[in-house]
Amino acid sequence: xxxPLSSLDGVDAPCSAASECHSVIGAEPDxxxxxxxxxRATTIGLDLAKSxxxxxxxxxxxxxVLRRKxxxxxxxxxxxxxxxxxxxxxxxxxxxxxxxxxxxLGHTVRLMPPAxxxxxxxxxxxDAADAEAICEAVTRPxxxxxxxxxxxxxxxxxxxxxxxxxxxxxTQTINALRSHLAEYGIVAAQGRKLSELIAxxxxxxxxxxxxxxxxxxxxxxxxxxxxxxxxxxxxxRMVRHAREDETARRLTSIPGIGAIGATALAALVCHPHxxxxxxxxxxxxGLTPKPHSSGDKERLGRISKQGNPMMRRLLVRAxxxxxxxxxxxxxxxxxxxxRQASGRPLANFSPMGQVALSEYVSGWCPxx
Length: 368
Prior knowledge:
One of its GO terms (molecular function) is DNA binding. The chain is an alpha/beta fold. The chain contains 15 helices and 7 strands.
């Protein structure tokens, strides 16, 4: 007679005896062995999440010594009990916070773009596989890391993102106001100055608008005025910050860079000297052409747009402003911009200036 579990497909072999199965099921976890293996962990991959985190650790020889799931309240306590180690984290939501906290505990934290970690995932999408891939990627000598931001830099970014959101809402409100008034044959010139349209909405004697439509559009006008005031308050704060912060103040000396651009550069570009040249910085923002080359055939397409879209937009606008002002300014800096822009289409010139690191172009050194 065969084994009573012989109908299994052979992938999971049955226990040879009831006593053996009992010993496996009733075995107590070896806490001492686990703590000893934790002490040997020199490199750790941490997969972040909202509630449940995954940890994968290896020793100096590359052997796996640690695999564990941790709840959010347990994470800092767990790392506080570990000896200093190299911790790899994907640069995602909350990564800067955890990088600062783990650094305070004595660990060396490295942040990596998720796209650079993905090739190291062996198979499937699980937290354990992601943590193992992070642990493998952080040890690669060619890996590119993301500098951790301070709380002050993140606060500046919050201010910039809130302003960007309010500007989008203002544009949405203006477009809605224009489209609704156009249904009644009321139009105005392009731009944000809508004094004519606002006067029509607020004029009770204008018979072109029904009362019901006038009352509804008056709500949009009130929202637009409130948005203008909020944006103006944020702009004032950024101007004061640009005057008080040394790096931002030096950045405003670059042609085309104002308070908003200087605040964004100081917050987003933490370590400008990590770029080998201005073109490397341009590539990080997605301002360089995307290559499609093979052999002796070199083809360059459109710009890659792989970097921060807000920073890219600010720099392109700053470059356009510098070019326009260069033709009516006699200062040495603007003469240099005019000389570089001569004979170049703006689309080709904008990525080549790289105003944030223009010491490579025109001799400025805005960063201390």
